[in-house]
Design brief:
The protein is an alpha+beta fold and 91 residues long. It is 25% helix and 33% strand. The chain contains two helices and four strands. It has helices at 29-36, 68-82, and strands spanning 19-26, 45-51, 55-65, 87-90. The chain has a four-stranded antiparallel beta sheet with strand order 2-3-1-4. The chain is globular, with a radius of gyration of 14 Å.
Length: 91
């Protein structure tokens, strides 16, 4: 029998959101969009950052978490479900 991976908990954070999970960072919006399309079940979103000396970057993230503990649990769930490393990032 096939074991279904755990679903990401999409509940609202316990307090003000301070963290998210970053899945990737791209210099091309098109690359970021294509990458993001792999994780539609996790409600990904894009954050645009202008980095001095490096230009504009498009960061693909999921979730918003009040604590590092919430973010760490979601990171483990996401990595098991998608077989992809996620990084805890401050908002």
């Amino acid at each position: 029998t096939k074991v279904e991976p755990p679903k990401l908990d999409k509940k609202v954070p316990a307090g003000p959101a301070k963290f998210s999970l970053q899945l990737g960072s791209f210099q091309s919006k098109e690359e970021a969009d294509a990458f993001m399309s792999q994780f539609t079940d996790a409600a990904p979103y894009m954050v645009t950052s202008d980095i001095p000396g490096k230009g504009r970057w498009f960061r693909v993230r999921v979730g918003k978490f009040a604590t590092t503990e919430e973010a760490a649990k979601a990171k483990g769930d996401f990595e098991r479900q998608h077989q992809k490393i996620a990084y805890i990032a401050p908002l």
